[in-house]
Amino acid sequence: MTQDTSSRQGDEAAARRLAGAFAPEAIDALLKDAKSAGTPIDGVDGLLNQLTKAVLERALQAEMTDHLGYDAGDPAGRGSGNSRNGRSTKTVSTRNGPVDIEVPRDRNGSFEPAIVPKRARRIGNIDDMILSLYSRGMTTRDIEAHLLEIYGVNASRELISNITDVVVDEIKAWQSRPLDEVYPILYVDGIRIRVKDNGVVTTKVAYLAIGVDVDGRKHALGCWIQDTEGAKFWQKVLSDLRNRGVRDILIACCDGLTGLPDAIHAIFPDTVVQTCVVHVIRNAMRFVSYGDRKKIVTGMKEIYTAPTLEAAELGLAAFDKQFGAQYPGAVDVWRNAWDEFVPFLDFPPELRKIVYTTNAIESINFQLRKITKNRGHFPDKDAAMKLLYLGLRNISSQRGGESGTGTHGWKVALNTLINLFPGRILF
Fold it and tell me: Where is this region: Disordered (predicted)?
């Protein structure tokens, strides 16, 4: 009999024994005994916890046997230089609640259990659960109450904070990871957050950059919490992207962010800066009464659907003539955004559909706002970045993982980009 055959037969025998242990009649007997004894199924003193305790303790005994090289009571252990030395008791938190277990000890103190490592007090992915709850916007106080109520696990707010701190190094790696050389499209937008700074709660903006790679996949390139105003801040952000390997950006789509266009042109001089048309429309609508919104939207449509710059200028003039006296603020929004709007008019329809709005990034920001609104304010920028990163990580896992999410109609748009920007897209 070969070694592979023997191993396979051993695995099959183990599988049969496991199947027998979980056979319906065996489970029925356990449930019947639990009912007779008045033992609940779940909970701290429930059947599931008793089974967990029995399995963990048996596994620890098996690990000890493997560590020493002989079974308990086996004469072969005499003179081996090490032996069993009683047990210690510890409580570990599991998804079914806290479990008290007895951990075997050896006389030399060299036993390092794997199933329940030394100093470990949580098993069953409790840490992962805390990170998951935290990334969905639950405060440390909420998580503490949730774990105690549902699982009977006492997890202090300090412990929860320490567990979530494990992502700090992950954030640093994410913020400094290498990027692609070329991103045909870059979207930039921000969300407002409240952060305590020098004892005073102030409003800051966390800006998110989403890059569309040559395959049409969207990636969160980075997140920056604003320290300074205007060009100095954006110079830092764009320099960061360049230092991480970005050589060229074809089109940058943003929403009238002060200093950003100048910073883009300074770092990436050949990039076309395109304002988000939807933002312009929304900003203009702030000056319009509810009853006039429909006709105002119709009037603005003549501007942003114009086939040429000349037609758009005529559309703006007509919009001003019709509504300028009543809503001068709406007209001023268009005039102030005009320099960053007009590049849009050079794009054919298949490309306009992709760059006319930052909705690709706004949908992410919407989800980030949901998880930050419960916080009131953050104690510092690091705490804010920790939650934003965990939120981004959670969103990414739902929306395509590390490979990002696709862009509808990308193949047609890519061919258009190659024609508009010859020699700048590398494969």
Answer: 68-106
